[in-house]
Amino acid sequence: MTRAEKMVLAIAVLASFVAFLDGTVVNVALPAIVDELGGGIATQQWTVDAYLITLGSLILVAGSLSDAYGRIRILRIGLVLFAVASVAIAAAPDPLFLIVARGVQGVAGALLVPSSLALITSTFDGKARGRAIGIWTGLTSVAMILGPLIGGVFVDLLSWRLAFLINVVPIAITLVLLARLGQQDQTRPGVRIDYLGAVLCTLGLGGPVFALIEQGTLGWAHPAIVLSMGLGVLAFAGFLVRQRFAANPILPLGMFAERNFWAGNLATAFIYGALGLTGLVVGVFLQEGAGLTATLAGLAALPSTILLILFSSRVGGLSARFGARVFMTAGPIIAGLGTLLYLFVRPEPDFDYWWQALPAVLVSGAGLTLTVSPLTSTILGAIEHTRAGTASAVNNAVARVAGLVLTAMVGIIVGGELDLAGFQRAIVVTAALLIAGGVVSFLGIRDERKPEPAEV
Asked: How far apart are CA 278 and CA 266, in angstroms?
């Protein structure tokens, strides 16, 4: 790589790292947040979903902003806003303030991830792009180690509040690298931002999520539940209609005419919905059911993350050489079968990490290592690089919305309480979603055929 390419990759990794780090910190901190601020499982769900609602809905606008005003400019704004929101979360006096601040943090996160990936896809081509995305996948996965680990240490020894300030260092480093990059920002002239579409999308996601979370307290027949679900569905339908006829849609439905784009995003919905569900229930159950400290619960998934770090780049290169379909098929199925091994987990005092949890961590981690880099490369490679920001935003929105919906459904899936029976139900649902992602990839993904060399 040239010096400029290395700097672009470092910026993309660090900017995405910030968003991913916060996502892993929060799962470990949830029990401590509820102990101090109250609110039970609803507070835990909203702490996760407030971030995902704004991230999932506004990430589409962010993709357009990235294409219209430049990836570098949007990255800078996102980094500063993320830092401000993190400080607000650390100072939260009650659940409502915390949830609102998490929503603002989601807005900032929406500006970071698509711009980061778009910066990569506009800088690298061909096999170099697949390798760069593999490196991005592996290095951003470090957040999956540092988030739970540092978050757990902060929760156990200091405070969950300080855990939300650990992203200040990568934010500062990224801003310095952006200043030193010296690269001219790329824009797409004539792009207009569909703010009405963004509002409809946010309402369309927020209404049903409110209903799914609060139905456990209010009941399905409560007017607030019926109204929020009904208005949310109508708003989301209006959003889709708006995208069909808008001159500059934030969700260009025409992109889904590309087979690998729609099939890859459908697989993404199953896979990342599963990851959102299992990340929440495993992190909480290991503390509340198995009796682990926050630090040990954060360390539990360490072997899986090490696999991602060590082999994501290699898998990215292999998928560029042999085709992504086999990896996108086998990976989620292996991950799903590995997740079923969590069914052997037992509450304290019978919990044994080495025999009950570690096999699930290793096998599911191996499956995800085979999946993530080929999945991202295939989806972004299906769309021309001039629309990389929008394509990346759509894929990230699909992933976050899938996690959002499954997190909102946690109360329904576990039966209102995360006891052993509820945990096992969530594990079965997770495994089914992952296997479905593999089946979709097998049926939908088509590897690009390389042209045969001309005969001499």
From this structure: 19
**C-alpha closest to that of 226 among 218, 201, 404:** 218
**How far is C-alpha 456 from the geometric centre of its chain's CA atoms?**
49
pTM, 2 dp: 0.75
List, in sequence order, the alpha helices (H) in 38-94.
40-69, 71-90
The length of the chain, given as a count of residues = 456
Does residue 213 sit in the same domain as residue 318? no
Residues 226 and 165 occupy one common structural domain:
no
Residue 404 vs residues 61, 256, 280, 407: alpha-carbon distances, Å? 18, 22, 11, 5
| 195, 198, 202, 204 alpha-carbon torsion, rounded to 10° | 110
Q: Based on the domain organization, do 131 and 255 belong to the same domain?
A: yes
Q: What is the pLDDT of residues 271-291, one digit of tens each?
A: 999 988 888 888 888 888 888
SS3 157: helix
Residue 126 and residue 140: Cα distance in Å, rounded?
21
Q: Is the dihedral of CA 225, 226, 230, 235 positive or negative?
A: negative
